[in-house]
Each structure stands twice: as C-alpha cells, then as structure tokens.
Amino acid sequence: MNKTKNNITKMIFGVILVIAMLACSFGNIFNSENFVVFADVENDIDYSITEIINGQTPNENYITINNAEELTTFSSVINQGLYNNKKFKLTSDIELNESSENYADWEYDPPANAWIPIGIGYDYPFAGVFDGQGFTISGLYINNTEDCQGLFGYMSSGIIKNVNLIDIYVKGGHNTGGLLGFSDGIVANCTIDGLVCSDFHEDW
What we know:
Shape: globular
Largest sheet: 5 strands, parallel
Number of strands: 12
Structural class: alpha/beta
C-alpha cells in the first residue's frame, strides 16, 4: 500500500515538474523580448504607383508618389478610372518643369511639360485621398480652354490635403483653379502661389 502511494506521489510530482518546465519555456518564448507577432506583412507595405501599375495588388495603405514621372502616372491611372478611390501620398517635393521661376512668361514661352489634370470630368473623377504630407509641387503648367482645369480637375467625395503649389501657370475654361477645378469633396491645409486665370469667374 505504501509502495503504491509512493508511486502515485512520484507521478504527481513528475507531472507538476513537467508543467513547471513547460511554463518556464513558454514564458521565455513569449516574454516582452522574445514575443513575435505574426503580422500581415503585405498590409504593412506602402507600394509605389509604379509597383501598382506593374502588377502589384494594392493593399489598404497609401500608394506612394515619389517623383514627377509617378505623379504623371497617377494622373493617367485616375483618368482611366483605375484606383480612383484609393489613398495616395507624396514622399518628396516634385518639379514638373525646370526653371519654373520663369512661370510668369509661360503664356508666350511655354515649358516642355503641359499638365493633364487628375480626374477628367464626371466620368473619371478623383474620389480617394491625396496627402501631400507638406511637400511642394512646382512648375505646373496648363494653357487651354477646357473646363475643370488644375492639378486636380474633378473630385467627387474625395480629400486633398497638406500640399503646396508654387510657380504655377494655369489657364483654362469654366471651373479652373490652381489646385482643383471642381469639387464635391474636402480640401484642407493647401497653399498656392502662381498665376491662375479662367474665361469665367467661378475660380477656386
């Protein structure tokens, strides 16, 4: 009888010892220094607009715009009705035309690159979020008689924020502005310095 009790006691002690060892092991694995979070890495990455048009599937993060070429690509993509409700952000200052300090003479001596607005009319509006992150776009040039002219042409239910425009020349028809032609959305914390004129008087 005593032998049986001793065996049971040893078994119970052995089980307690194993549990204690496991607890220590898991404690070392999951303490503040060693704990590993298996996050969704795909959703932690900000892809550029170039990566998106080359086949990368966009996630819920911002799509980055890193230079003048990608800003032009952004305009082209939105004007094809693609990704127009996604979030985009600038990552640097962008110069659309060199020597933009001469913008006042562009009516008679135009620069190399004429801008096509982001969101061309009611069919392909911009409806996402554009965050300039405080960066500056310079050298925007538009000179035509079309309606809804500006960096953005037509925005529906979107947001444009935190972007500065300098040294710009924008001339267009009805609903022409430096930053935006026509909007049903929100504009916040943006500045403009340059020349803007329209054939009409309803300018932004």
